[in-house]
Amino acid sequence: MKYATRINSFLRTGISVKEALQQIGDIQGVDYVDMNYPEHFRDNTVQEIGSILKENGLKLNAINLRFRDEYINGIFDNPDLEIRERAMELCRRAAEVCEELQGLQCIIWLGFDGFDYSFQKNYVESWARLTDCFKQVCRQAHCRVSVEYKPYEERGFALIDSWGTAWKLVQDVGCDNFGITLDFCHMLMKKENPAFAAALLLHEGKLTGIHVNDGEGSFDDGMIVASVHPFKTVELFYYLKKYDYQDVIYFDTFPKREIAAAECEMNMRMCLKIEEIIDRTGLEEISRIISREDGVAASEFMARLLV
């Protein structure tokens, strides 16, 4: 499998984007990075970023859009057409950067598209505006476009709050280059089982990105992979292997007290260990256990993983 990590985990110590990429390039097994637009391109041109990536043996996985202050009242669902047009233009420029750097996709998370109070939002009209914006962005982009959902934060309620609403959006937009990015912590916040969402989207060919991390489930903890929910993580990886997932697995973790490089290496070790467990057990054996639909049999398998 292919792995990427989060640049901002390294930038928190005050180093530059160039220095962060140099540190990431030294981590064995991490061959890709995600970059935020426009955040990570303020001090370096696209050409300079491309050279830095190449010098450190890294490839671009995705460009993640970042919408700031002027979008606090909405991005794609904002009733102000001028603000929606600026948001779409930002996406178009990000798609061009992604293409120039030979990245795989642009990931759009609409943290401000939602509501906080009852009677605050015309849901149908907001959904129509949001859908129309995604259609325009996807039709003009020469790369893949992926939507990342989160049930809340920054708003009390997000319009795209689950894999189900994300799937409806994909169907309503109807563009071949449009898919869904799943985030492990975001799914926990929604009380979803990550493997369930991944399996259905993999089956439909619409899982275009996966962010792995872990947490307690109330907010976006961004903890080390499999540190809280190891069995759910193993089950997720089982489906990634079963459906021969070819895209990149991204470490979306937030080391606040840990050294970023050491934390990233731990994520890598966890994932490789999980891959080893699945390969050693075999996809057919795990499938056989699942086919029994027996909680005791499933628990016996999980107990074996503890040895």
Provide structural commentary:
By secondary structure, the protein is of the alpha/beta class. The protein has one domain: Alpha-Beta Barrel (TIM Barrel). The protein has helices at residues 8-11, 17-25, 46-55, 81-100, 123-140, 163-173, 184-189, 194-204, 230-242, 260-281, 283-291, 295-305, and strands spanning 2-6, 30-37, 59-65, 105-109, 114-115, 144-148, 157-158, 178-183, 207-212, 248-251. An 8-stranded parallel β-barrel has the order 1-2-3-4-6-8-9-10, surrounded by 5 helices. It has a two-stranded antiparallel sheet with strand order 5-7. It is globular and about 60 Å long.
Distance between the termini: 25 Å
* Helix/strand structural class: alpha/beta
User: Strands across the major sheet, in which order?
Assistant: 1-2-3-4-6-8-9-10
| Average pLDDT | 97
Task: Indicate the CATH architecture.
Answer: Alpha-Beta Barrel
Q: CATH topology, anyone?
A: TIM Barrel
Low-confidence stretches: none
CATH class: Alpha Beta
Percentage beta strand? 15-25%
